[in-house]
Amino acid sequence: MVELxxxxxxxxxxxxxxxxxxxxxxxxSMAKDKYQVIRQWAQNKRLPDINIEFEQRKVAFSHFLRxxxxxxxxxxxxxxxxxxxxxxxAEQENLPDIKAPDFRFGRLQSAIGRKVNIYSKxxxxxxxxxGYLLQLVGSQVQVHITERLDLQNPKKIQKFPxxxxxxx
Length: 168
Hints:
This protein is α+β, with helices and mostly antiparallel strands. 17% of the residues lie in helices and 38% in strands. A hairpin with a 2-residue loop joins strand 7 and strand 8 (140-148).
């Protein structure tokens, strides 16, 4: 479900809610050159919400689309929802129609919120940790670590290259 909320003359938010997972991803335009993407999890997941600020609207909106829930959604329905979101974004930002937007799916987009294995950069056979994938950030993923096998960094939330992370 996609919703648009007007927050003022130049402020708005677009919310993508997943009925399947209970999570939501929100794109907020607070002012010119001030954007925010918030990821909220279903309460039963017990994962930390994620809040990232951006200065460039296209980067923020792209991050939003890459991190929405796509679990058990038919590809044609997902494409239509993304087109709808893109139309809302273009209208709110007074942009011309965005022709042929790129709606490729990231390799791990369907794994957001799910348990993943993290392998060493050196050896793909060396499992170093397990956790829950929180979000896709460029060519990396952010993971909430739940089990350390050979991971030295003590931080609870860490980034790893996408090619080191695999769905359990």
